[in-house]
Amino acid sequence: MRWIVRLIGVVLGLAALVVAFFLLIPGERIAAIATSQFQAATGRALTIEGGVSPSIFPRIGITTGPVTIANADWSEEGPMLRADALEIGIEMGSLFGGVIHLTNIAVQNPVITLERAADGRVNWDFQPAPGAEQASAQPQGPAGGSAGPTPFILESGTLTNGAVTYIDQASGQRSTLSALEAEARLPEYAGQADISLSGQMNGQSLLVKGRIGEFAPFLQGSVVPLDLTAEIGAARLGFEGRLGTAPLAADGRIDADLKDLSQISALLRRAKPELPAGLGQQGVAVAGALTVTDAGSVHLREGVVTLDGNRLQGEADLTTGGERPRLEATIRTAALDLSSLDGGQGGSGGGEGGAKSDGWSKQPIDTSALGLMDAAIALNADSLLLGKTKLDKTRLLLGVDRSRAVFDLREVNAYGGSLTGSFVLNARQGLSTGGELKLTGLALQPLLQDLADTDRLIGTGDLELQFLGVGANMDAIMRSLSGQGRLRFGKGELRGLDIGGMLRTLDAGYVGEGAKTIFDSISAGFTMEGGVLANDDLIFAAPLIRATGAGRVDLGARSLDYRLLPSALAREDGTGGITVPLLIDGPWDDLRYRLDVKAMVNDRAEAAARARLAEKAEELGIVPEEGESLEDAAKRRARDALQDEAARALNRLLGGD
């Protein structure tokens, strides 16, 4: 045991000599050594004002007065760092070499400037002084390589009442993190490091806490375990996994509740994104397995994205190597509410007239999002509320290429029927929209109530439609629509109009509350040009009523000008009865119905005249051939008579010779 006691005595004696040597060095000399070594290692001047005060109790260390670190020689922003005081404590064992064991580092009231020049240079890129650089280039260690950073241990590091200003000379951006409080602990150089900081930036509070699993490899840019949480006002971001910085790469779970993005936008001095309701206007949250590769791609698996009340699940891959970022994603959701995307339809058209409509919206449609990235997105939703349109189970593909979006409707169930086809939004030069759609077995009343604010038509129907519209707003698009289509309705009911009553009484007052017409079928084809739909082949079949129709629907002006020619049939074979033209015109929400009695009288007079002509023709022996009108038959009969008379005259003349 005696040798152990002697060994302890020797160690204590050596320690006493070292401490005595440490205390005997003047503070000015310590400051000079420190500034010289710092400049040799970094190429920057270190200025210590007020000298250096060494201490041995309660710990070995030094305390300085104001400290200044010079900025890069190209900067005009003053010192890179200014601090009122710096305190460093060291474990006695560190005086014998090996790992530096710092018991504490405390920086008071530091002001730090981080700057990026217009040409990309940064002021935190330290370069050793020429002599030091040459010395560091000499082989060190058994392998002849660089010894690397000196290992150290830090029991407690604190930064009090600091400020960090970031300046980007290229963009003109300047941001300051003030009221900065920071703490750091590193029990083992190659082990776990704990950091925390808080402060104020652009009027927003910031709190960051992190745990680096392997500190030494992290300094070299290697991928190491990382647990990080950040709070910006009420917004919160958490990451648990692995991260490296050279190059940037990460793999772990992310859990972020970004609220309405206002606080994050303010922190970054960016305008808050104007997101629609249902797409993050009130809140954005993201959770899932996140991977960031060294190629710059981002991948999300088991993802859950919450946008306002919409909860989306799926996977996503974002790549950035091309001309534009590209997003590929598969999204699943129970119910997706995008009711805010209603195109700005104004007014209320009510089923029975209601308030007058203000027409289509003239608010410009913002298509800037289509230019942000290319995309290929598959959506599977149990239900989808798009504007006023309610869809049930929906499967669609969305492709975006250079500001042109194509929606491929694989399966859309809506209003008791189905919808297939595709449509396009093209914002490459202005805005245009077009497509080919096929609707089968749709319930007409709820569909038209949602799309056109009218509930007058009850039944089921099919529609085939090709369309194209151009314009910066909904009003311009509707006034430019072109295309064609065909519709077919089965048994149903037309509310607000009693055609049979009108024909029986020749009274156009059979409209409004309680009036209706039961029908067996309706079919019609149509064309569209300049926002006006034209039709000339409508066939309307109802019990004891048959009708044809032709007219125009001004989709842009939301008005109708149509002539229906119904016949009330007295007998099942279609004979007898009465036919009276019915005129329907006016705005959609205030249609007028008029019986064209004058046209009926004229038609009857014309029919009577034709009957008399036919009777007279029969007396004269004028019989129309198949497909020939009575007028043409009379002309033919006159020509024949003239030819016969000419032939007889010629015969008489020749006989006379």
Automatic annotation (TrEMBL):
Location of region: Disordered: 124-152, 339-360
InterPro entries: AsmA, AsmA-related
Domain called AsmA: residue spans: 7-182, 306-515
Coiled coil: none
Low complexity composition-biased segments: 127-141
Sequence intervals crossing the membrane: none
GO cellular component: plasma membrane
Comp. bias regions, Gly residues: 343-356
GO biological process terms on file: regulation of protein targeting to membrane
Pfam families the record matches: AsmA
Domain of life from the UniProt record: Bacteria
PANTHER family, per the entry: DUF748 DOMAIN-CONTAINING PROTEIN, PROTEIN ASMA
Protein's UniProt name: AsmA family protein
Native organism: Cereibacter changlensis JA139
